[in-house]
Design goal:
Number of strands of chain A: 0
Radius of gyration of chain B: 27 Å
Oligomer: heterodimer
Shape of chain A: globular
Shape of chain B: globular
Largest sheet of chain A: none
Organism (chain A): Amycolatopsis cihanbeyliensis
Helix content of chain B: 25-40%
CATH superfamily of the largest domain in chain A: MetI-like
Membrane topology (chain A): Multi-pass membrane protein
Number of domains of chain A: 2
Helix content of chain A: over 70%
GO biological process, one term (chain A): transmembrane transport
InterPro entries (chain A): BPD_transp_1_N (IPR045621), MetI-like (IPR000515), MetI-like_sf (IPR035906)
Distance between the termini of chain B: 58 Å
Number of helices of chain B: 17
Keywords (chain A): Cell membrane, Membrane, Transmembrane, Transmembrane helix, Transport
Chain lengths: ~350, ~550
């Protein structure tokens, strides 16, 4: 087990190393660069050359890369040139990460709260109206571009009806203490109820838009999984023993049907991050996804490097945890590894 | 059975949770504004910014989003009359040049103090100039000290010529500035945001010069990030990066007329559509640079659209380096006759745009009304091409994607109009489009393009800020160093700028402008476009500035 884990971690390091080389080369192979983004139409040939030198962009790419790796190993990932000029890229990432986590977790929670009961009931009454509504809803969730959905929600609920704010994470002028960077949680911890409620109002729309992705997947997995489990012998046995519906549902059906759902939630990381890029842009949400979008526009290499490598690491780590937990749960996998 | 019904109800409640949550939250929906009555003191204003400020030390900045904030916190020796590009006294009440124009004596306003209580006096002014001149390392690069390099040149000990020589505090309220040569741009150039006077005490305490290159970039000081200290009508309160909000408060000790607002808040909303929606929903009270396509709908919705006087130029650049046909003046004149500027302005550009004849607006000194105006005349263009022996001259026409600029709100539309005109006049046009920061600027700057769309927004009222920037160094995007007149043009510009007598200097600029059109034609002026800003109807007292240097001190929000 330990050897398996070590091997997987080494694989992870190799993936990150290869990715960093490819990413570094790809960003610098794109035409243009941070100098154009910084100086715009104000750059003369002379000032541009001077700035390239100051940023070390005039050196051969392999030297740039080794400098980058050398500094990265000591925790210095360069400083932002476009998203928040002058701020260390890692600091920027760490500051914005809670915003993206808050949004993603809220989206997952909304998706779970809606998809699991719906998926269960759809499976219980297969072919019924709820089943059809759920299937159509999940198809829309999967196929509708999140950018469009975000705009639609904002237009209806914020602009037309004025129910919720159009963007940002908190109303300006609210005096809120920052603890974890999760604004809603901070408000609850510090008992600043106004700030907590205000943050929740800001969080709701973007989380709703972003939840469309996991909702669709979780609904379908739940439905399929419940259908499978309900055909199992032990459910029939439980029924014949005269157990109440509730006990059957909670102890036998849902418990067993939830395993694939848990795995699915873990594997939604990548989809959530790509969805967050668009959602955060539409809702002026100061998270990592927005930093990625602005970073591309302004050719902010250090920020793009940190965000993309961190996102890849998160994705690979989640996969690793899922695999390891399987290995713990299912001895056959461990045996296969040894073979 | 009963149990099932209860469970069913619970399930429905669970499904309805999301909807209920939205409704319950909407019950406490309220506007983010609280405000006083019209024209009276109080309230707060939230203005939508298009990007995050880089830092709050204006000397280390060159972007409008930073200056929008710092202009409210700091003041310069010289300011701008609201709504114009003309200078007015600000921290200096008057100034006098010596006979040779190299020594300037500034008389300072009395009874002024910085936000930290440090008195504003001649020593503080000299401390600022000395700080600027003594920059080293990262602080002496164009990435940080762009405006110093553009206006003053070199720094102490870097071997490059500098306009600045010394600063002497004669007494509390008199400063003598010694320049190395006369320039017509002085003291107007001091109206730029970068040359705001900052508190020497605060700069020392929070190590303002502690800016260091790190990795691919540079890290700002504690002063620049958290403790900006000026003499302006607003003081810095906080920058909540996690929420993208910069908060300023009224300076109760301000030496002039105090700000009407209690609080001024800039909210960063990078996406233009998101800014518009935030205004429509009442989340913000105004924002800058609404897209011209939105102007009508914003006005119809009752918002106050303020169109600035244009202080910019869009030109069709010509690089003669890679296309021999373009080295022939007749071909360049054919281009000028081929473009229908009037129609382009009326069909593609926003309301208030004007066709341009020279490389800067009429309000700037040295404008030559009598310079050649190449009327739209496709027949004449064809004739000139024939005379030059370059019928059907093949030209690449470059235009940028992924950008809008105040002078170029619609690059694709402008390109399309010009392409059509050139083809109608007998040119064979090859379109080349590249992303603005993804190759376009890189290649245009090293003279790789043939014909290209580019422009400039003026920093202050001076001909040198326009044509000096374009043609003052012959190694430029137009490749004027390859023309027989390139060096001569640069020399004439330098000579005009160092002429002390106003009338004589303006006559020289007028003459350069005539030659630029009649004899040189290194590029073709196309248009001046007005950038706009938009505010909610409750916002009163904001005066649009042609240099986008709006002041928020006189602004109030009515309830």
């Amino acid at each position: 087990m330990l050897r398996y884990a070590i091997r997987r971690v080494l694989q992870l390091l190799l993936v990150i190393a290869v990715l960093s080389v490819l990413l570094f080369a790809w960003l610098r192979a794109l035409p243009g660069g941070p100098v154009s983004a910084l100086l715009g139409d104000r750059g003369t040939a002379e000032t541009r050359a001077q700035l390239e030198e100051a940023l070390g962009l005039d050196q051969p790419i392999y030297i740039q890369y080794f400098n980058f790796v050398g500094r990265a190993l000591s925790g210095d990932f360069g400083t932002s040139t476009g998203v928040s000029p002058g701020k260390p890229a890692m600091e920027l990432f760490l500051e914005r990460f809670p915003a993206t986590m808050e949004l993603s977790l809220a989206a997952i929670m909304l998706a779970l709260a809606a998809a699991i009961p719906l998926g269960y009931m759809a499976a219980r009454r297969r072919g019924g109206w709820l089943d059809n509504v759920g299937i159509v809803g999940s198809m829309i969730g999967i196929s509708i571009p999140i950018f469009f959905l975000a705009f639609l929600l904002k237009y209806l609920l914020s602009i037309k009806l004025g129910l919720l704010p159009t963007g940002g994470r908190q109303s300006v002028g609210i005096d809120a203490t920052r603890v974890t960077g999760f604004f809603v949680l901070d408000g609850l911890i510090t008992r600043e109820w106004d700030a907590a409620l205000d943050s929740l109002r800001h969080l709701f729309l973007p989380a709703l838009a972003l939840s469309s992705i996991p909702f669709a997947v979780i609904f379908r997995i739940t439905r399929a999984s419940v259908l499978d489990v309900m055909d199992e012998d032990y459910v029939r046995t439980a029924r014949s023993k005269g157990l109440t519906r509730r006990v059957i549902r909670d102890r036998h059906v849902l418990r067993n049907a939830m395993l694939p759902v848990v795995t699915t939630v873990g594997l939604q990381t990548g989809a959530l991050l790509s969805g967050a890029v668009l959602t955060e842009t539409v809702f002026a949400w100061q998270g990592v996804g927005q930093a990625l979008a602005i970073g591309f526009e302004r050719k902010d290499f250090p920020v793009l490097q940190v965000v993309i490598i961190a996102a890849a690491m998160a994705y690979v780590l989640v996969n690793l945890l899922v695999d390891l937990s399987y290995a713990v749960i299912d001895p056959r996998i461990r045996t296969a590894q040894k073979g | 059975m009963l149990q099932t019904r209860v469970a069913g109800r619970r399930r429905i409640a669970l499904i309805g949770l999301a909807g209920a949550l939205a409704v319950s939250m909407s019950a406490c929906a309220e506007s983010e504004r609280d405000s006083g009555g019209e024209g009276q003191t109080g309230g707060q204003l939230v203005f939508g910014a298009a990007g995050a400020p880089s830092n709050f030390d204006p000397f280390y900045a060159s972007d409008g989003e930073t200056f929008r904030v710092t202009r409210q916190i700091y003041e310069g020796l010289v300011g701008l009359k609201p709504g114009t590009s003309d200078i007015k006294p600000e921290l200096a009440t008057d100034w006098d040049p010596s006979e040779d124009g190299k020594t300037w004596t500034f008389t300072l306003k009395e009874g002024v103090q910085f936000h930290d209580g440090t008195p504003f006096n001649a020593e503080a002014v000299c401390a600022n100039f000395e700080r600027w001149y003594n920059q080293t390392g990262a602080g002496a690069t164009a990435a940080l000290s762009y405006y110093w390099i553009e206006n003053f040149g070199g720094f102490k000990g870097d071997g490059k010529p500098s306009l600045y020589e010394s600063c002497t505090a004669e007494n509390e309220t008199t400063v003598k500035l010694q320049l190395s040569r006369f320039t017509a741009r002085f003291p107007t150039m001091l109206s730029q945001s970068s040359f705001a006077i900052q508190s020497p005490t605060a700069m020392e305490k929070y190590q303002a010069d502690n800016v260091k290159a790190q990795g691919d970039s540079f890290v700002f000081s504690e002063y620049a990030i958290e403790n900006p200290t000026g003499t302006g009508p607003f003081t810095f309160v906080s920058y909540d990066e996690a929420n993208g909000a910069i908060e300023l408060a009224r300076n109760e000790e301000y030496h002039g007329e105090k700000a009407k607002l209690d609080k001024l808040i800039f909210r960063v909303i990078d996406d233009e559509t998101a800014r518009k929606q935030a205004l429509e929903a009442g989340d913000i009270d105004g924002y800058d640079l609404p897209a011209p396509a939105d102007w009508d709908s914003l006005e119809e919705a009752g918002f106050d659209l303020m169109i600035r006087k244009p202080f910019n130029i869009l030109y069709l650049g010509i690089t003669q380096k890679n296309n021999p046909a373009l080295q022939d003046l007749k071909v360049r004149q054919a281009l000028a006759h081929a473009i229908d500027r009037e129609t382009l302005v009326s069909s593609v550009l926003p309301e208030g745009a004007q066709p341009a004849n020279l490389f800067y607006p009429e309000t700037v000194d040295g404008y030559a009304q009598d310079a050649v105006n190449y009327e739209y005349d496709p027949a004449k263009a064809k004739q000139l091409l024939a005379e030059s022996g370059h019928e059907n001259a093949n030209v690449e026409l470059w235009w940028p994607t992924q950008v809008t600029r105040p002078y170029m709100p619609n690059p694709q539309g402008i390109f399309g109009a010009i392409q059509e005109d050139l083809e109608a006049a007998g040119f064979t046009v090859t379109p080349v489009s590249k992303p603005w920061a993804g190759g376009y600027l890189d290649q245009v700057e090293v003279a790789d393009a043939q014909l290209f769309l580019l422009g400039w927004t003026g920093d202050y009222n001076s001909p040198d800020n326009f044509i000096g920037t374009f043609f003052g160094n012959p190694d430029n995007q137009f490749w004027t160093q390859g023309s027989p007149w390139g060096e001569e043009l640069a020399r004439q510009l330098e000579e005009a700028d160092s002429t002390v007598d106003d009338a004589e200097r303006n006559a020289k600029y007028a003459e350069i402008n005539r030659k630029l059109k009649a004899e040189y034609l290194p590029a073709i002026p196309i248009s001046h476009s007005p950038p706009a800003l938009v505010v909610a109807p409750e916002v009163k007292g904001l005066v649009a500035s042609p240099l986008t240097q709006e002041e928020f001190a006189p602004v109030s929000v009515s309830g």
